[in-house]
Amino acid sequence: MTDWREVFERTRAVPPHSQTARHSDIKRPSQGFQLVFKHLDGASIFQKPASVQLRVSFFDTARQHFFGRTWRSSPHDATVASEDQGSSRVSFHEVVYFHTSLCLPYVVAVVELVEVVSLHSQHATGCGFGILPLFSGATGTPSLSGNQRMPLYNGTPRALLLPSVRDVELNRHLTVMDGVELLYTFQTHPALLPIIHLFPQNTLVSGHTSIPGVVQLSDSTDWLRKPRVLKSVSCTLDRLVLVLSPSLERFEQDLLHLLTADSHNTHRTQEGPTLVVQERRLHVGIHNGWTFLEGPQVLVLELESAGGPRGRSGSFRQTSGGGLSSSSPVLALRGGVEMEMVAHPAFALIFQLEYVFSLTASEGKLSTSTSRVAFLQCLGWAAWSPFSGDGRGAARAQLQLQAGATPNPFGVMVYSASCTSHSTTEATEGGVHLSFQFSAREERPQSSPAGSRRGGLTKRKHGVSPARDESIQELQASLSRSIQGPGLSMSQLAEASRHPTLRHSTGSPWQQSIPSRLRPSPLASAHQLSHVERFGVSSIVHLEMSVKDVQDPSGSELLPQEVDEPPLQELTYTPVQAPVIMLGTRTTGLPSRSSRSSLAYLFSASFPEVLDLHGQVAEVSDPSEPVTFNPQREEADPLQSNTLVLQFLAFSRISQTGVPTDWPRCVHFTFQLYRFPPVSTQRLSLIGLQGKPTDDDPCILAVINKDGTVNTESPGLQLRFTVGAEPECPGERRSFLKYLAQHSLQIDVWDSNSMQLIGCAAVELKHLLRQGRSAVQVVHELEVITTEFIQDGSVAGGHLSRHAVMSPINILTSVKGRLHLRLGNVGGPVERGSDISVPSSVHVVKGCSSMQGFGGGSLFSSSVSQKNARNTARALRMVEVHGELMSLLQARGDRAGQVDAEESRLRKLSRMAAVRQTEQQDGATEHKPYMWRREERQQLGRDLRVIEAYREQSKAEGIANMLSQAITTQHTLYASLGTVQFFEFLLKNPFSLPQTITIHSEDPELSVVVSTEEWRYLKQMTKTSTPLEQDMFKLNEKTHVLQVYLRPKEAVHIPLKYQTFVSTHTLPPQGLGPMRGDQTHHTFQRLQPSAVSRKSIKVHFQGQDGKPVAICQVRVELTPHGVDQTFRFSHPEGTFLKKAIRLPPWTPAPEEAPVLHVRCTDPNVICDTRAVAPGEPQDVYVKVAGCPSPQIKKFFITVFTDRWLLAPAQIWQVYVHFLQRLDISCVTGQLTCQSLVLRGTQAMRKVKCHVSHPLELQVDPCEVFVLPPRAVQDVQLRVRCHRTGSKFVQLSVVDVEQQQLVEYWLICITAHPPVISKAFEICLAVGGGRGSTKKITFTNPYPNTRTFHLLSDRTDLLQFKEDTFQVDGGQTYSIGLRFAPSQSPGQEEILIYVNNQEELNEETFCVKVIYR
Length: 1412
What we know:
This protein is mainly beta. It contains 16 helices and 71 strands. The strands form 13 sheets. It has a 20-stranded mixed beta sheet that branches. Strand 48 (1094-1102) and strand 49 form a beta hairpin. It is globular and about 105 Å long. The two termini are 77 Å apart. About 17% of the residues have low confidence.
């Protein structure tokens, strides 16, 4: 790897103009951009074959100033165009990235086209340049979007620096090159934001530029397209000591003497202001060769000696000259410096020693002028790379600070100490020496530096002498014993400038005066803005050894090594967000079957039977019996067609607290079966069984007609899905049978009146396998389950206790009802003419033979070449070939059609007019029709010239496309979401010389399998018996593309795979869907690949001369995919949704559970899984960014169980409904009112409000009301919670006529516990029969008569004798309580709320019931 100094030397940049940087918006953050140069049209300007290169620089047109770094592309070959070919093209396909905050309209990019001899040659010949506008106006957005063309000017871009060249477009000295244009695109690149701290602004880099800190991939992908940052390690600097030679007193005396002498020379006086050293600072920062990662820390140094620590109040006395009277003082830092840095050789610690000088008057007092209180001067700097050869493994580092005119990262003037010595010995051993203790925490595997095996200390050229090492060690030992530092430093009390580094530009308090020994750095101006303005103001910190005095119990002081604490280790943490459990088919706690009498009445409703082809009733299967799947038997079944029948028979209500007994009244279902489109059924009404007393009996489902009436003649709803009647893709039947054997169907049940989700049900499809039978059927009674997450009231408004073991979120899974469903599978024959045979998938594709000739055909159509005519060609009209030409001549074509219609009539009229004019007048007259025909001929001539130009332009391209067909091999793939389609292309070298073939794919989804292990795994899964080679491919270092070496006439197998994570499913509209007819029978067909889901990808195999040797054209047919489970989440808008989906345990053997991998179709959704111990539950974590209401975000999650992601084991469909949020805070048992604003739409509607929890929330108006157009309606909310905690309640406003959702709110109710006034304890016997009756007394505290209401949080355990009572003032009333019996021992706490007429809580009683 490259070390820091080499990277720093080659990444110098010119800063932008000071006025431009000052006029730019300082608060505007830096934005990432992407600039793509595609190709150059009109490359015929080159008289001979040449190698061309693009060079791009930033230019300020307002100040005529170039800034940044010039980016250079790789050389590209430009061939000479022949006379027949016309203009030629040079393909670049270069991608450039940069980030900047100078989004100004006069900041442009200058692109120069040069001819070079070689890549590293300095000799180049300019061929032209162009000006690329970047930003428009003050918005800071890219001025152009999409493909744009940039003309090139003759000459060199240095002409832009001439004063006469101000406006390029209006300047007559700059001429445009005819026919030469550069095609490019410019757009924002938000993916660059995570790494903008790793390279400076206004720096152009390519996708393969080595930026320390960015993960560099080994393949040919673009590193900066989706960059990743290397992980960092924790580093600590301790015992930092600086020794100034020959001594601190002598060094500072010489420095002050030079500054004072320079002041006298500047002012021409003998006396002037006196200088004193106010403060000594050390800047410490992390630099990666490009820029500082963040602002360097400014540390205050203290005076120390070998005898011990001494601060400002110690025995050292500061003289008027700034010297010290101590014998051997040094500068030291108390405490340590902690920082995070990447273990990379190019990362270095940068140190800068800086002095703060103050002016004193003749009396010795400090000047009162705030502008001259202090000024700064850099005395030296040093760079040390802890992970390179000079510092790897070193525990103690010793450096010498550099001075003079060497470039430094701070870009400031540096004091040269070598000229201040008065003897040769002092000049040799002089300077500033730095020593410190370096330690790094245990590194992560991803960020461990390569070659970290070497250890020990390697001295640099500027290291100190061995004699000086002993003194530094002695000083470090004395420094470690110091525990108390000084108070606030002088810089924190009297600092004048908040930009200390910027003060270097003025040098000293005497304006424009520079001392002779202060040598400016050549890059002082180049680095001043590019580094300083990036991190802004450097904060000054004063580091102590620790916050408090660290001592052991015995009173002895602890050394820094003893007080260092180990780093924090990440623990296994269970998030507060409870996981979403994968949906099951059974829930314990409730009976899963209805009574026999109810089932007898249910099936007497004349539901349609499931019949086979011969009219016989299908064989009934028992859902409780196991199913054995025999694939051979299914393959041998003569009835290859399958018709799946779904019959929705009935729905059983379950009584719930606070919900009406007739809820729901009408329902509809949504689901997706196999590869069929998503289904949303019609509204179905629930018709109860007459004469049945129980509430849990099933209600027959009946279709609601368009007019609102119920179709009672044909009960239930029947849906049919046919598979196998149409031509199938390879392996389609096997995939369908596997789907039936291994998957379940999830059905979402919706309340059609409120448009809210009731719950979900799941049914296994394995009973639909016919196994040679003509037809099968099975009847299921499915539980409709819903899951709620309620936060516990004890932690809703505070923090968890230290030893809390209770989960902060309670998961409540309840059964909302039972769905009676009948499934059937009817086998059938295949229609004639359809081929249902499963062709074997082709995994080896052989390339076209080079001896084949072209059979003739059109240049622009393959229709003729597909016929059996070898030497024929059909001519096509130009307007049929070129769309641009057709649109250009469209207006002319319309006029020509009208002319043909009236040409005959106009000719006759012109003849008649000519005869009459001849008879009446002598002489020639003007003939208007003739003039019109003359204009017509001129227009036709112009059209013919346009057509000729188009024909000449497309001739070369058409011939090239025709010749490429001889070496093109076509292959068809049937791909699905997440599934790998693998094949091998047989590539043969047609030449008698060895060739290095370059492989280039047009689409990244079709890639070359580079890993040998992955190739072996794919061959095993596809049963491909072809040779396997190790290390077959190599990566080109220049172009970063894959290459393969072929011997003469050698043929090899190139492994290719296609895998896409882009779903072709579209978001269905909200509502009930298209099934709104009166029919009760519907038939669906499987989704077929549409034209949008088809695409063609070419893989080019190019030789060393850049010409194609073979072309593999892959036609991809994207087939629809199935959905294993659907998740629907309602979440507040504008917030992140964070969910954990818990997978069921691995049933075969927990210790053999595979490592899961997940992928998401939406790149903006974060989806991840973590490795867990065997037997532990596996969670999939999902993080979705919020959207405005009422948007719905839909995406798919694919779950893989194999290492190479061959085929997804599960495909999940996730819907996230972002709704408006309303927060309501209340006290349990007390009524809280709040209003909600409902805005009308463009038309008048009849609407009704529905809530998901009517027991806690009531709305007013609760009936149907009219919502006028564009009006505002207040909806009153009445909230009364019976239990503490937080929960979400859904409020929907539905149009009752159109059955459309008008508004949807997500109401977050937070209930706080009331104040308990009295507490009681009652003991009851278990199994008490009818229960027990008790009394509690209540006294009216008011002097007048009041009416009170009674409520309880456990209505299932406690009932009141009277819910409302009236008590006179000061009187006592006995509240009658009736407790329900219990069959098991235990204890319960019941709250009794006593409210007044305004529903405000007067008293709250807590009754503890103990069942014994």
